[in-house]
UniProtKB/TrEMBL annotation:
This is GNAT family N-acetyltransferase. The lineage of its organism: Bacteria, Bacillati, Actinomycetota, Actinomycetes, Pseudonocardiales. Keywords: Acyltransferase, Transferase. It holds the Pfam family Acetyltransf_3. Transmembrane segments: none annotated. It comes from Amycolatopsis rhabdoformis. It comes from the Bacteria. Residues 4-153 form the N-acetyltransferase domain. InterPro entries: Acyl_CoA_acyltransferase (IPR016181), Bact_Acetyltransf (IPR050832), GNAT_dom (IPR000182).
Length: 153
């Protein structure tokens, strides 16, 4: 496996990110499970890219993009993370490295004390990923999602 590198997403990533977002397995684990059309996605993407409180990263290996990590600032030093692997990258053991690369990028460019993750109760793989990455249960489940938290030194 080649080393992973994160970069900020751009408008040029719109169709790739939309394809990953509309993948059935991705939708199943999302808070919003409907199919998103291109116009709505472009509106969302431009809003994310323009926001100082959101970071959207594309994580790649030498062969190309393998996933995306988004961070939303909830409070000073507190971020919520969301991770999506490209459908063709699943099953390769990349999720932990993608998450770690996203966390590394964020901590080098922003103040980070706490990172939160909302994980669908039926998504055992995602829960295991965050737990292996140092996240612990932080609040009772609500609306079908568990909340995990990672505190950074």
């Amino acid at each position: 496996m080649s080393p992973l590198a994160a970069r900020e997403a751009t408008d040029a990533d719109a169709e790739l990110l939309l394809a990953w977002r509309n993948d059935p397995r991705t939708r199943q684990a999302s808070r919003s499970s409907g199919v998103i059309d291109l116009a709505d996605h472009l509106r969302w993407l431009r809003g994310v890219l323009a926001s100082p409180d959101r970071v959207l990263l594309v994580v790649s290996e030498d062969a190309g993009p393998v996933g995306t990590v988004r961070f939303d600032r909830e409070a000073p030093g507190e971020w919520e993370v969301s991770i999506t692997l490209a459908p063709e990258s699943r099953g390769r053991g990349l999720s932990r490295a993608v998450l770690a690369e996203g966390e590394r990028w964020l901590s080098e460019s922003h103040e980070v004390h706490v990172v939160l993750a909302a994980v669908h109760e039926d998504n055992a793989a995602s829960a295991a990923l965050f737990e292996r990455s140092g996240y612990v249960e932080s609040a009772p489940a609500e609306d079908g999602f568990r909340w995990l938290r990672k505190t950074r030194g």
